[in-house]
Design a protein that fits this description.
about 325 residues, alpha/beta, TIM Barrel, 2 domains, six-stranded parallel β-sheet, 7 helices, about 20% strand
């Protein structure tokens, strides 16, 4: 039997054109006032960046604009995970991480947070600025098994990025810092993401009636407008993704291998990091393949696509035409 050309692995699940995620630094309890209801109305999963040493406490960190607001406690964080949100480590102290501090800020914070929320923590989020993305910090993240480290870099994340650890985030604020002081734009980076098949991650803090700090947050009305714009512009081409899920897909795609075997293909992963939880990919089949089996079981093809769980190697074979 002649085997058709091999399948290809889609850049994103379902061959979606682009991806959107949204993150909330500090994990403040006041997110329940506006942010959580807005996202739930539009089926958008959020992501909480937790200052682990302050879980459940009223914020009092340096000269922070959010001092006086309460960080979510462990029960509240677990509730958000049950809603489909994700959680990342935003350091233990929200301070500048020196080499002597990495064990507390990266490893111990991860372990305490994982115990508090009842699931592994694979995302690190830089606190303050990108100085907390320095080499000694990222080396510690790699050693601790983090799969992603989120920066404050206004850029896209792409399926084929060479460095999967470094992740970019777009500011969702009333006004950016100088020298340009860019104003709020509900369309920011959408066309860019669609064109480049990119993953757009927004970052903000806790939107209220008015921004707590114009350069750190937007208002609730601005968040509403942004989410409505994302959903309407994205339509069926958009994957609204929890950070961990989009991150996992990039790793599985990077490590997946397709080999020809007797009358078909063997699809597997090599050296996939242990922390990857979601281990499926979408394959686009050759045009002349009408039906296939996966491990000898017939699988429905949808628009030339099939989803394959790679928790173990799979053998895919075209079925003869009837």
């Amino acid at each position: 039997m002649n085997v058709p050309d091999a399948p290809t692995i889609c850049p994103w699940p379902g061959d979606k054109r682009w991806v959107y995620s949204i993150t909330f630094d500090e994990a403040l309890a006041d997110l329940h006032r506006f942010a959580i209801p807005i996202l739930e109305r539009h089926n958008v999963p959020g992501h909480l960046e937790v200052v682990v040493g302050h879980i459940g406490n009223v914020r009092q960190i340096g000269q922070s604009s959010f001092n006086g607001y309460r960080h979510m406690n462990a029960d509240e964080l677990r509730e958000m995970i049950a809603r489909g949100w994700g959680v990342g480590n935003h350091t233990w102290s929200h301070e500048q991480i020196q080499p002597r501090d990495v064990d507390r800020e990266i490893r111990q914070a991860r372990d305490v947070l994982a115990e508090a929320v009842g699931e592994p923590i694979t995302v690190y989020c830089s606190a303050g600025d990108n100085s907390n993305m320095s080499d000694h910090v990222l080396d510690a993240c790699r050693a601790c098994g983090y799969l992603g480290a989120m920066s404050l870099t206004d850029a896209l994340n792409r399926p084929d990025d060479e460095n999967l650890l470094w992740m970019n985030r777009t500011f969702l604020h009333d006004q950016a810092y100088g020298p340009f002081f860019s104003e709020f734009d509900p369309f920011r980076n959408i066309a860019h993401a669609r064109h480049d098949r990119g993953w757009l991650i927004d970052y903000l803090h806790c939107p209220l009636e008015v921004p707590v700090h114009r350069n750190k947050d937007c208002s609730a009305d601005q968040l509403q407008r942004r989410i409505e714009t994302i959903v309407s512009e994205g339509g069926e081409d958009l994957w609204l993704a929890r950070v961990e899920d989009a991150m996992d897909y990039r790793y599985v795609r990077r490590h997946a291998r397709i080999e020809s075997v007797d009358g078909g293909w063997r699809v597997s992963t090599e050296a996939l990091p242990e922390g990857v939880r979601r281990r499926s990919v979408t394959l686009r089949l050759p045009d002349n393949v009408q039906t296939v089996t996966v491990d000898a079981e017939s699988v429905k093809i949808n628009r030339g696509l099939i989803d394959v769980d790679l928790n173990q190697p799979r053998v895919i074979k075209p079925e003869p035409r009837r």
